[in-house]
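The material for today's practical consists of a large collection of protein records. There is nothing in a record beyond a sequence line and a structure line. As an example, a complete record with its sequence and its structure tokens follows:
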Amino acid sequence: APLLNDTATNSTVDWDFFQDIDLVPIDKIPAPGVNKWVPLEVRTAIFDDYREHLAFNNRTYQTPVVPSLTTALTTGYQAYYPDVYGFKSYPIILDPLEDIEVAIFNKDVSSHPFHLHGHSFFIMVRGTVDQNPANRLTPEKRTSPMRRDTITIPPMAYAIVRFRADNPGIWLFHCHMEFHMEQGLALTFVEAPYRIIANTTRPDQYKRNCDLMGIPNSGNAMGRTGLDMAGEPRGPFPLSGF
């Protein structure tokens, strides 16, 4: 079979970067509208702990003391409050069947493959954020957008994706390079928390595993009641000039 290249296929697909926005789905489903807009700027910097971190909107992810699913199931009406999930888990609350548009601006020097759990999103637009007009890509829109659960965004580029909040749960959105996730490049979509409560029962094994690992089986991100988040980590934060 011939190699995929511009000459043979009249496509922007090549081996350096795969333009998944050029793909055409067999089942052409219209993209949802927009009820909530989530802008995410990706940066790397030296933070005030004197380590290099990656971050969405200057917030680095850290796993909460109590799993977010446990928090959703044990905090009652406060499961709708983002604070109970912890600042460092970067919780974004989604209403049932809300249409979400996520704009990811990669200001980092590396490419990042971003993966969304629980959904396939529509790739609406790709473009560049390069300040040099000669290097800018002209954004293109698609009438029948391709659907993916992972999208790679090159340095100084952006992508706009959409999905419908039709799958209640706690869903990570993160870079699929695990060491980048360890550096903080992740956040949490808390989707339809009241429906999670109504339709989810934790199996006994879930609770036993938490007991064996010393993880609380109830409470907010810090294992406390309500909005008592005493001792919650909030930093580190980027140092000025980095």
